[in-house]
Specification:
194 residues; seven-stranded mixed sheet; 22% strand; Rossmann fold; 36% helix; alpha/beta
């Protein structure tokens, strides 16, 4: 199978990235983490990446006059590290045509809802506010629509009567860690669009 050289885009704590790196280190996931690119200088993900021996690169959006310049810089950094699969692991920005064209069919995201329900921010709060009985997470290909790309995999969790945003988020996050690794393992990059 074609080698998976992963570049992570992160903005926060990096727990999904850590779960993937743990599976790679254990030999259970045939892939290589190449670089973590972060847009937030205070993100714990930067230190986490460095602690795991991964290149950690800070690329702040505020340093670029245009979104296109920011995205072209992201592409350049990822390509310099030999990335052929981009994982959005808590990356809190939409990506547009310049970025997506550089990695067609090779950008995936994890979202804490059963898409197409509750896209965007605070998905767990949205689920609780709507009174759903089942919540979960979705791994999907990234396109120009927020959380709108084709679905790769989903995992569900029951919503308990006493759930809070925090308790539901914690259960969904545990699902995310497993589902994202399974989805990456199942990708066949050799037959993906190049």
């Amino acid at each position: 199978m074609f080698e998976k050289n992963i570049g992570f885009l992160v903005s926060g704590r990096g727990s999904n990235m850590a779960a993937i790196l743990d599976e790679i280190a254990s030999g259970r996931l045939a892939a290589e983490g190449r670089v973590a690119v972060c847009d937030n200088p205070g993100a714990p993900a930067l230190a986490l990446a460095a602690d795991r021996g991964l290149s950690a690169v800070l690329v702040e959006r505020k340093n670029f006059p245009r979104r296109r310049d920011f995205e072209e810089t992201l592409v350049r950094v990822l390509k310099e590290h030999g990335v052929n699969l981009v994982i959005l692991a808590g990356f809190m920005r939409l990506l547009g045509p310049p970025f997506l064209a550089a990695f067609p069919g090779r950008v995936i995201n994890i979202h804490p809802s059963l898409l197409p329900a509750f896209p965007g921010l605070e998905a767990q709060r949205q689920a609780l506010d709507h009174g759903v009985k089942i919540a979960g997470c979705t791994v999907h290909y990234v396109n120009e629509v927020m959380d709108g790309g084709p679905i790769i995999a989903q995992a569900a969790a029951a919503v308990e009567p006493d759930d809070t945003v925090e308790s539901l988020s914690a259960r969904i996050l545990a699902l995310e860690h497993r589902l994202l690794v399974q989805a990456i393992a199942g990708l066949d990059l050799e037959h993906q669009a190049i």
